[in-house]
Amino acid sequence: ATPLSCKLSDAEVAEFASSSNFTVDEVVALHVHYDLISSAVRDDRLIDRSEFQTALGFTVKESLYVDRIFQLFDSDNDNFISFSEFLQSVSVLSSKGSTAEKTKFSFDLLDFDRDGKLSTQELLSMLEACIQENSINIPPECLATIVAKTMEDVDLDKDGFISFDEYRVMTEANLQMLNHVTFNISAIIAEYMPTLRAMAASGRTALT
Q1: Environment class of 83 (CB within 10 Å of its CB; exposed 0-12, middle 13-18, buried 19+)
Q2: 64 contact partners, CB below 8 Å, separation of at least 6
Q3: How many other CB atoms sit within 10 Å of the CB of residue 201?
């Protein structure tokens, strides 16, 4: 097995901690996890689309849902996720992410063309992708009805789109809607902490 280690300097760890919702020790644990993901196919310290999907555990090879999450992680659009990009998105998706951060991430996930508003087609496309990912059989006409009802209820100014403010009002009234952008990151961190702390005691990692 590959030995656990953090290749970041103390200064880098401190900087990442200050710019995220994580402590120094949590940043170290997440960097170890990131290294394991990024070396799954090529040991290049970058996560590509294939490594990302494998890490998420999604089985459908062509997944619009995975594509959208990957695109949001990949903020510089270079088709790879750096550790900085990984940490910033995971910070939002963790239980430490604020409601405002999660609402923005959730909205952006649906806003395919990044025009700041959600169309009927964008909602329908994502709903179809989620149905496919979970192997649920729902007739197309039922999906269309669900989307039409959502637009009717949420599009308050009746311009045919859901603005971010309209979306925020909806999520504030139904916070459970943000469950899909809350991952159990603490469990991932906890998996590495005992080993990293033991190694820190012998002076072999950055953990304090």
Answers
A1: buried
A2: 125, 126, 128, 129
A3: 10
| pTM, to two decimals | 0.86
Task: Tell how strand 117-118 and strand 162-163 pair up.
Answer: antiparallel
Q: What is the pLDDT of residue 151?
A: 97
CB neighbourhood size of 190 (10 A)? 12
CATH T-level fold of 99-181: Recoverin; domain 1 (1.10.238)
As a 3-state breakdown, the chain gives helix, strand, coil percent values, each rounded to 5, of: 60, 5, 35
For 47-84, write each residue's pLDDT tens digit. Answer: 999 999 988 877 666 788 889 999 999 999 999 999 99
Provide the Cα torsion 38, 44, 50, 54; round to 10°. Answer: -20
Distance CA 8, CA 22 (A): 15
Q: What is the CATH number of domain 10-59+76-94+183-202?
A: 1.10.238.10
- In angstroms, the CA 82 to CA 70 distance is 12
Measured distance CA(123)–CA(151) in Å, rounded:
9
What are the domain boundaries of the chain? 10-59+76-94+183-202, 99-181
Measured CA distances, 63 to 16, 55, 59 (Å): 30, 14, 9
